[in-house]
Structure formats: C-alpha cells, structure tokens
Amino acid sequence: MEGLQTIRPELLSISPEQLSALRPYFIIFGGTILAMILSVVRWMNPKWPLFILVLATLFAGIVDSFRLVPEAPLTLFNAMMISDGYSHLFNIVFMASAFFTVMASFRYLDREKLQYPEYYLLILFAVLGMMLMVSAQDLIVVFIALELMSLAVYTLVGFRRADRRSNEAAMKYFILGSAASAVFLYGSALLYGSTGTTGIKEILSFIQTHPTSMTPVYTLGAWLVILGFLFKVAAVPFHMWMPDVYEGAPTPITGFMTTGLKAAAFATLIRLLTSVGYGKGLSITLQAHLHDILWVSAVLTMILGNVVALTQTNLKRMLAYSSIAHTGYLIVGIIAGSGNEMGYGPVVMYLIAYAAMNLGAFIILTVLSSRDDSGLGLHDLSGLSRRHPWLAFGLAVFMFSMAGVPPTAGFAAKYVLFYSAVQANEIPLVIISVLCSAISVYYYLRVMVYMYMRDPSGSPSVNRIPVWSTLGIAAMVFLTLQLGLMPGKVVLAAKKVASSL
Amino acid sequence: MMRIEPWVVLAFCSTIFFIGFAGVLMRRNIIVILMSIELMLNAVNLTFVTYSKLLNHMGGQMAVFFIITVAAAESAIGLGLVIAMFRTLRSVDTDQIKLLRE
Questions:
Q1: I need a labelling partner for A326 at 20 to 30 A (CA). Which of A63, A210, A352, B72 fits?
Q2: Quick check: is B81 in a domain?
Q3: pLDDT tens, A170-194?
Q4: What is the ipTM for the molecules in this complex?
Q5: Angle at CA A391, nearest 5°, toward A262 and A352?
Q6: Would the CB atoms of B80 and A155 count as touching at under 8 Å?
C-alpha cells in the first residue's frame, strides 16, 4: 500500500499557471463536447453551426497555443504531462492541420453525400489525442493518447462506408496499427519492469543513476517502444500499410494523416528516444546499436520511397511513397540530432514545412478529385494549367517545395536538416539523402509536365472550386513561400523549443 | 504451497505475446486476428501485474486498468470495421483484401 501514501495534497489542487497552460486542451475538449451535443439536435440541420463551431474551436486553440510557446516548461498532473514550447509548437501544427482539413472537407462531404457530424467530432478527438501525446511524460499516457488519436483516425479512414477501398484501407490500418500499439505497450511493460517507473524522465534518470540496470530486458523494452513508433511514422521495413491506407482514405483525411499524424508520431518519437537515453551518452553500446539501426532504416526508407514513387501513376499513391521518402529525411535529422548544435530543431522545422506543403497539395487533390475519390491519375492532370491556372500554380509550388527547390519551404527545411547532419559528421548519410532527393525531382516534375505541357485528354471536367478550399490553398501557398523566403524565425523557434527536451 | 518463480510468469507472458503477434501476421480470418490482438494486450497486462508485484509498486496495476479500457474501445472499433467491410466485401478473409494492390 506504499502507492496510496504517495498521494500528496498538491496533486489534488491545480495552480493558476497550470490551468492557463492547460487552456488549449480544455478549449479543444470543450469544443468537442459542444460539437457532440450539437450534432444530435433534431430541430435543425447541424451542418453549418457545427462547421463554424469546429473552426472556431480550432482557431481559438491555435491562438491560445501561440501565447504559450515562449513560456517556461511546467509539469502537470504529478509529472504525467509537461507544458513546454516543444509541445505547444506542435499543438499549433496539429490544430492548424485539422483546421485546414475541416475547411477542405466541407464541400467534399457534401459532394460525396457523407455530411455526417461524426466526421468533425473524430477530427477533433484525433487532434486532442495528438496534443496529449506530444505533451505526455509517461508511457501509459502516451499509449492512451496514441489510441485516442489512432482509433479516431481508423474510423476516419473507413469513413466512406459504401466504398470497398476505404473499408479495406481502414481494416488494414486497424490491424497493423493495433499490433504496433501492442508492441509499443509490451516495450513499456519491459521498461517498467527494469526501471520501476513508466515516466519518461524517470526512466532516464534511473538509468543514469543505476548503470548496472541496463539489462537485456531494458534494451528489448527500449527497442519495442521505438519499433512501435517507427511503424507509426512508416519507416522501412514497417511502411507497407502507408500507400494502401493513403490511397483508400478519403482525400482530405489523407492530407490530415500526412501532416498531423506524422508530426505527432515524430514529435513523440523524439521524446521517447531522448527518454531511453539516445544522445545522452550513457551507454556506448546501446547508443551505437540504436544509431546503426536508425541509419540503415533511414537509408532504406529514402531509397525505397523515392524509387517506388517513380513508377506510380496515381497521385495519392505517389504522394504516399513521397511521404515515406520524407520519413527517411526526418530520420536522418533524428540521427544527426544528438550530435550537432541545433539539436532536434531541424526535424521540428522540417515537420512544419512538410505540413504546410503537403496539406496544400492534398487540399488541391480534394478539389480535383471527381466523385468517389477517383480521377487522381497523372493523366487527369493533363492541361490543368488551362482549366484551372491558379490550382496548377498552387500544385506547382507544393511540388517544387517537396522536391526542395528554392525559394520554397521544402528547400529551407532540407538545407537546415542536411546542414545539421553534416555538422554531426554523417557525411555518407548526407550524400545518400541528397542523391535520393535528386531522384525525387523526377516524379515531382512529371506532375508539372502533365499540368503545363500536355493537352487536356478526353472531356475535361471543370470542377467548381469551393471558397473554403480556396482560402486553405492560398494560406498554404503563402506559408510555403514565406517559410522558404524567411525561414529564420521558424528555425530559431524550432531550435529553441527543441533545446528544452 | 508451491511458489511460482517470477521468471516463469514473465516467460509465459512473452510466449503469449508472441503467439498473438504470430497470429496477427499469419492468420487469414479477421476475427481471429482481432483475437490475437487481444491476446497481445492481455499478455502485456499480465507482464505489468507481475512486475508490479515484483517491484512492490502500484503503478503497474494502475496501468492495467487503462489498458483494459482502451482494449475494449479498440475491439469495439475493430468489430465495427469488420461489419463495414463485410457489407461491401461479403467476406472476413484477409486474402480478399487486394483491391488496393496495383
């Protein structure tokens, strides 16, 4: 009963600073509950009020998080959670990604006759899960938040209930995702067994004070925890689910997954890596071991992602493989993170830039897709510059950005990332990354060739572009160019928040 | 009374866990796969309880409560997805899932 005595009075009260640090979470949670109530009213059509409510909730959350980014770290709930710049910066990414996904989804759901209130609720729940996951300081909290996010996203992937592809994608994602969660959980059980705690900081401090407790059980536990997350970020060899799920999911949800989900998984992976002792110089063997396996995984991920993307003709599938390739670059950043002055800052910067350009690209794909989410082959883009010159321009900006051409966000992010890898003395890795990103230019430019140099094939349909999507695309184009032209502020902010890890 | 050594229990847990893992990878029926996932989660629960007893620390047993709850939610979602898939596919066999492979 030693556990009962550890309940201290200060755990039952909450200080004003803590309350203020928790406000974004309360805003999202409150908005979710309100939306839930609103979605069951019978006396009116909840479509418009719900849409406005969800956007207002996310907007309020974003504004509130901006206030919290420069604040000093603050532990919450008996050190189960932490409120620091790192978590709040990522919270902004998640909420912004959900904000623009909701904007892009509104007319899409009308068109596909899927306008159910649950869609918005699930997005809000997924955002709440991501926010909790990135600020969690305890492996059990990470697990609960991970499931809150994943369960909502499994359902969203299968949201086109009458469509076989959507069902198959959801099923595949569910089975593999749950297995990965279980692997993660088994790893945390082993870590708990060898250190006597599930707290992320406590595990590290226990290992630092008791170096003899680095038993094989600890190593296996650390491995399983990290493998669970390597699955979530779709690093080779755990990438098989990604192209299928991205292709089968509703297009706006695919955009949400590439930005929000990926950022959440990477942000938490970095927290976990630091917790099991990566980059703190505690055990040379474990360090070298982790480094080697991440190294191999990064190289395989980049090569496979880029080479397979060359042969894809479906845009969604091509972007899925390009997303795998970008996972590879991000792992390069993680490998370099422990050995350079920027820390994990470049990874944070890359995730922000990647979110901006990918979200924009998927909003455009949502607009361009014909009914039943088809019509996203490369041939369907033929002569897009004549039908929709502005959409073609937007997609061109995003494709240039993903290929890493200046002056776009992708270039700035890649520059900072590869520079940090050079500083960390990972020269062979940088050479492989640069060669891989040279390969990637081929398939990104092919999209441009179809848009600008081919004549329209068949009977080109001119879609009406919803005003919400236009706003979203414009914002993302602006952000992509802004981050490319003036990256300094974001780079510094990323460096600052990453140094507090 | 015979005392059961902790390592026996832990070895048992890891056996169950890897049986579950092998089931997810090898079985073809989705219902069986869902059962295998439950098996994995329950093996984790047992591991947590064993360590909790070994370390004389309540945290592990608290974790089990949360895991049980989440596992229940997970199987609810999983069965919902199976039903949605059965409606369009008329099968619960994973070999039928091949539409997305080009």
A1: A63
A2: yes
A3: 998 999 999 999 999 999 999 999 8
A4: 0.94
A5: 25
A6: yes
Residue in A144, A183, A196 nearest the CB of B70: A144
Whether residue B100 is predicted with pLDDT greater than 70 in this model: the reply is no
In chain A, which residue's Cα lies nearest the Cα of B76?
A: A151
Q: pLDDT tens digit string along B12-52? A: 999 999 999 999 988 888 899 999 999 999 999 999 999 99
Q: What number is the average pLDDT over the span A305-318?
A: 89
Asked if B85 and A192 come within 8 Å (Cβ–Cβ), the reply is no
Residue B27: what pLDDT? 87
pLDDT of residue A290: 80
For residue B70, being part of any structural domain is answered with: yes
Is residue B33 within 8 Å of residue B27, measured between CB atoms?
Answer: yes
Using a CB-CB cut-off of 8 Å, the residues of chain A touching B32 are none
Contact B100 A163 (CB under 8 A): no
Angle between helices A47-68 and A23-38 (to 10 degrees): 180
Within a domain: B102: no
Q: What is residue A71's predicted lDDT score, i.e. its pLDDT?
A: 82
Contact A336, A273 (CB under 8 A): no
Chain centroid to Cα A397, Å, comes to 21
Nearest CA in chain B to A242: B100
Q: Do A174 and B70 touch (CB under 8 A)?
A: no
Q: Where are the domains of chain A?
A: 285-501
Q: What is the pTM of this model?
A: 0.92
CATH of the domain at B75: 1.10.287.3510
Range of the domain at B42: 6-96
Cα torsion at A307, A310, A311, A313 (round to 10°)? 140
A 149-188 near B (Cβ less than 8 A): 151, 154-155, 158, 161-165, 167-172, 174-175, 178-179, 181-183, 185-186
Three-state DSSP class for residue A81: strand
pLDDT band, residue A460 (cuts 50/70/90)? low
The structural domain count of chain B equals 1
